[in-house]
Amino acid sequence: MAPQPATIIKAFESTGIIPVFYHDDEDVCIQVMQACYEAGIRVFEFTNRGEHARRNFAAMRDKKLVSMPDLYLGIGTIKNAADAETYTGQGADFIVSPIMDEAIGRYCRKENILWVPGCMSPSEIAAAEKLEVPLVKLFPGNILGPGFVKSIKPLFPQMKFMPTGGVEPTKESIGAWFEAGVVCVGMGSNLLGKQVIESRDWSGLRAKVMQTFAFVNALH
């Protein structure tokens, strides 16, 4: 059974950074998750983006259960309720979507699974709010920008926001987003760079995540 949504929301807020990652190689997926965990991350989003997604997610879940019991491992890039159900059955702690889809929302609410839909407009955020969604992903973040958050927050005072896409692992970028009022940021290739992954530099990756983590912690 997945943890309570409220419990995972607290983990999102306390971690501040949500790594977003996919790779075809099972071992690379595990090593990246391990490096992030060792750097202090407690929420990790694996994405359903390649042919080995289900296999690799299962391997990461098994690793997490053995050596990272306090890590919340979710699945992203979920665009239909059938995939949400599949990954929930595989042990996903939460579901993230790039879109606002009511069928996914209804399924996750019925199963008491945290669902984070992707929204790009006030209308989509309002639709998520009607489904009692507590946290939405602002996607793509690089198009919307921190100014969008400042503009819409007064319209949705109870909603929590997480931008994904375009967030840089710098003090300035992270500071601008959190100052605008987000509770956490999703970070993919800007944090988990292609070069460090290809060179298998796990200590370098861990150091970069720790540095980025420090930027977030300094804001609290």
Strand fraction: 15-25%
For the record, the CATH class is Alpha Beta
Write down the overall mean pLDDT: 96
Percentage of residues assigned to helices = 40-55%
When the domains are counted, the total is 1
How do the helices and strands follow one another from N- to C-terminus?
HEHEHEHEHEEHEHHEHEHH
- Outline the biggest β-sheet: 4 strands, parallel
Radius of gyration: 16 Å
CATH homologous superfamily placement:
Aldolase class I
Secondary structure category = alpha/beta
Question: What is the 3D shape?
Answer: globular
List segments where confidence is low: pLDDT < 50 over at least 5 consecutive residues.
none
Produce the secondary structure layout.
Layout (H helix, E strand, L loop, with lengths): L4 H11 L1 E5 L4 H13 L4 E5 L5 H15 L4 E5 L4 H9 L4 E3 L5 H10 L2 E3 L1 E2 L2 H9 L4 E4 L2 H4 L1 H7 L7 E4 L7 H10 L4 E3 L6 H5 L3 H16 L3
Parallel strand pairs: 1-2, 1-9, 2-3, 4-5, 6-7, 7-8
Commentary on this structure:
- This protein is an alpha/beta fold and 220 residues long.
- It has one domain: Alpha-Beta Barrel (TIM Barrel).
- Helices cover 50% and strands 15% of the residues.
- It is built from 11 helices and 9 strands.
- It has a 4-stranded parallel sheet with strand order 3-2-1-9, with helices on both faces. A 3-stranded parallel sheet has the order 6-7-8. It has a two-stranded parallel sheet with strand order 4-5.
- The longest helix has 16 residues.
- It is globular.
